[in-house]
Amino acid sequence: MDTLGLLLHGFEVALTPANLMWALLGSMLGTAIGILPGIGPALTIALLLPVTISVGPVSAFIMFAGVLYGAMYGGSTTSILINTPGEAGSMMTALEGNKMAKAGRGAAALATAAIGSFVAGTIATLMLTFAAPVVAELAFLFKPADYFALTVLAFTSVAVVMGASRVRGFVSLFIGLALGVIGIDAMTGQPRMTFGIADLLDGVELTVVLVSVFAVGEILYVASHYSHAQDQIIPVKGKAYMSREDWKRSWKPWLRGTVIGFPMGAIPGGGSEIPTMLSYTLEKKLAKQRDEFGKGAIEGVAGPEAANNAAAAGILVPLLTLGLPTSATAAILLAAFQNYGLQPGPFLFTSNPELVWGLIASLYIGNVMLLVLNLPLVGLWVKLLRIPRPQLYAGILVFAMMGIWGVSGSVFDLGLMAVLGVLSYVMRAYGFPIPPLLIGLILVPLAENQLRTALAAGQGSIRVLFETPISIAFLLMAFLFLFVPLVLRRLRSA
């Protein structure tokens, strides 16, 4: 069946009443958590993992996709109205969006953000539709050595890009690797790093780590920086929609942001922060009214918001086709697949096409839902900002504990959640990035398995890791990720 035929089958799956309800629920929940500062899609999906274990995988992932896209929409609202990005990808939107709101053009800023998100999300989903099957076909050519080289690339690029310090990035990565090897070795049957504790023989439960890192650690960090001063919310003024001049100045940034965001989201370590920064810089250089930047230029909202949403679709390409997470949210989605006993990769397209194409089709539907939810109902969403922070975060903590207890019923897991939560708080406080920890934890079983398989095929010779052009290319890219920034820094200081 060709791509269009498979996509139509995906729409049949996504348009069932039950799945439409899950898509709407995910979109509304995503918008809400995007608006609430400090709560991102990664935290929300981590909290939902224990709850959705009884829901079918197709419905669960349709809801997760709604949460992912909805958070991108909702994050722009707080950036514009209170100058506080709801999630990391909305940082650049705050620079110009908040200035527009203060100048009485908040409605236009919200409109260009919402419409730009819709345009970019739809185009990027189209790219995902046609790129994913091609990448999945190419992945069938990969040998174990190639997959191992790919995981090395993911380790190095994510550890370097996701933190200000390479040392801190690698410390975080190695903590994740250490957690990932706890338990019984699959090949020898010997316990590793269990310290005689029977509860660790099955390894560290991934859901426990995710909830600990994103809920407990985040709440402790927010509480330590809590200020009793109320955020000043700028009322939405101006016309409900954009003027003709606004449309004229926005449509090109939307397209440019999409072109920047999608490929950056797809590469390891790209994330949403880098493409939004690149988009903002590009729009500042290309703008005719360059003097408006810093005072409320609409291009500075349109471009980064488009790049943000396009990057969200981009992370799904390596995740679905190679099982490779390129961001914290993608790492949690990979954990969700594993919770259902599924392994993303080229075989997922043939073994479970209903899930893959239902998920992709739901992205188109979710985009339309989000546009309808965000433009007319922005006043309603803004009321969420009035929820007192102490009550909000206390509720999240209780929900997290109930979720972990519901999944495992283990006092040990609750204690482990507390310990890992304190560890992640310390990491945040001292500037250690969290995503490398998650990437290390999730990718270490794949990396170890592929390395051992490759070495077994090569009768123990390490040369087998450098015998194919694909593995050489990936290892060379990993080398460049590690050492080129260092060389450039030395050249600048010389």
UniProtKB/TrEMBL annotation:
Residues 20-438 form the DUF112 domain. InterPro entries: DUF112_TM. The keyword Transmembrane applies. The keyword Nucleus does not apply. Keywords: Membrane, Transmembrane, Transmembrane helix. The chain crosses the membrane at residues 107-135, 147-164, 170-188, 315-337, 357-382, 394-423, 429-447, 468-488. This is Putative tricarboxylic transport membrane protein. It comes from Paracandidimonas soli.
